[in-house]
Amino acid sequence: MKKNINFLSFYVTTILFLSSVNLANSQEVPLRSESGEWVCVSRDSDGISPYAFAIQQDTFELNIYDDAVFNTMRECESALSEPIETADNQQYFCASRDADGISPWDVFRWDVDSSLLGGSTYIDFQQLGLITNSIRECENSIENVSIRSGRAFICASVDNDGIYPFSMFELNENPDPVGQEYSSLNDCFGSVASAVNAGTTNANETAAQVMQEESGDPVTANSESGEWVCTSRDSDGLSPYAFAIQQDTFEIDIYDDAVFDSMRECESALSEPIEAVDGEQYFCASRDADGLSPYDVFRWNVESSFFGGTTFIDFDQLGLITDSIRECENSIENVSIRNDRAFACASRDADGLSPYSVFELIENPGPVGQVHDRLNDCVNSLQ
Predict the structure, then answer these.
(1) Sequence-ordered alpha helix ranges (H) in the chain
(2) What sign for the dihedral angle of Cα 98, 102, 105, 107?
(3) pLDDT at 380
(4) Which of 44, 313, 378, 381 has its CA 20 to 30 A from that of 84?
(5) What is the pLDDT at residue 25?
(6) With 90 as the cut, is the pLDDT of residue 32 above it?
(7) 370 in helix, strand or coil?
């Protein structure tokens, strides 16, 4: 509607103009670029889905950008009017990877400049190649971006198909995956949250206490060079699982001499090591690094940090073999101290089977004392 404007001073006219701008900003207003306004239109110019971005000239001509395509008009308008701002102070939105408006979905980044009046003008956007299966998963990934050493990281599909396995990627164009792989997107998010929480925990708490309080999340424990984590040994997100050192920027160094059949066994070795009567902490893992029987005893080399907390630095494989992880744990739980030396029961032939004997709880010990047909008989002899 045309409004009649009485002759006023330039000052009053300016005030009215700025007031009208502020009023308009409280509503949905098209976003301007240097060549026109960003709008949402039907990609195929038939008025129906899918929908795409376009630049609309003052004379209503359209230039359609069919690399940012959405299933619904609402999704398209949200990407324009409600971009997700992350901790790296950039603005992102999610759109169809294949420009067809359907799964999978990719992350796009706005290139934003400030206008003369201080508002944001969206000039252009970049498709980053960070793929998830649904638009909600894509938005969730953006909302869970982590900043490490001044670099932003995000969870996405390793194979760019939007599905399992998932990993961390640096938040830039066409990045490579870094760090460990996860069987679900939520596990990848949990790893980020766990690491952040561990970094803000009171330094006087032990690593085991920190990890127990975070049960249900991937386990982390600090070392001098990074964090101990559990990851798929073969980087495929599947069993077996192994210890690894994860750097602050999510790169990992896998230690495939401590390997487990399940993630639970691996996490338990980190968060719930067995403290024997000799005051040392132990865990059980596969002897042959395949996650299967037989099992060996490992000892954590634990040092106290500067602040008094416990830092797991390294571990030793001792060569005390049993047939199952439960038998291995039972042996550690029944350690006996004799003349200030610790003794445990294990397979005499290092195959996990009968016969069994007593061994000193050190690296690669020899059997001592009598031989037993059953492990329980050996354990009972220590009492």
Answers:
(1) 10-25, 73-81, 135-143, 185-199, 207-213, 263-271, 325-333, 375-381
(2) positive
(3) 95
(4) 44
(5) 37
(6) no
(7) strand
Give the amino acid at 246.
Q
Q: 109-120: per-residue pLDDT in tens? A: 998 776 555 555
Band the pLDDT of 46: cuts 50, 70, 90.
very high
3-state helix, strand, coil in the chain (%, to 5): 20, 35, 40
Dihedral, CA of residue 120, residue 77, residue 123 and residue 102, to nearest 10:
140
**Residue 27: pLDDT over 50:** no
> Could you identify the residue written with the tokens 């949990």?
190
- The answer to whether 262 and 272 are in contact (CB under 8 A) is no
Closest Cα to residue 295, out of 333, 260, 256?
260
Going by pLDDT thresholds of 50, 70 and 90, the confidence category of residue 34 is low
* Tokens at 95, concatenated: 């759109």
Strand-pair category, 37-42 with 51-56: antiparallel
Q: Distance between CA atoms of 254 and 245, rounded to whole angstroms?
A: 7
Cβ atoms < 10 Å from Cβ of 297: 28
| Rounded Cα gap, residues 255 and 52, in angstroms | 47
Cα–Cα distance measured from residue 344 to residue 340, given in angstroms and rounded to the nearest whole number: 13
Answer whether the bond into residue 218 is a cis peptide, omega within 30°.
no
The per-residue pLDDT for 117 is: 54
Distance of CA 314 to the CA centre of its chain: 23
Q: What gap in Å lies between CA 69 and CA 172, rounded to an integer?
A: 20
Q: Is the peptide bond before 175 cis (omega within 30 degrees of 0)?
A: no
Among 96, 310, 110, CA closest to 203: 310
The pLDDT value given to residue 144 = 93
Q: At 174, list the tokens.
A: 């066409």
Q: Does an H or E element contain 45, and which?
A: none
Q: What is the mean pLDDT of residues 46-72?
A: 93
Q: How far apart are CA 258 and CA 24, in angstroms?
A: 62
Which of these ranges, 60-64, 110-114, 201-205, has the smallest mean pLDDT?
Answer: 201-205
pLDDT in tens, 228-255: 889 889 888 789 999 998 888 888 899 9
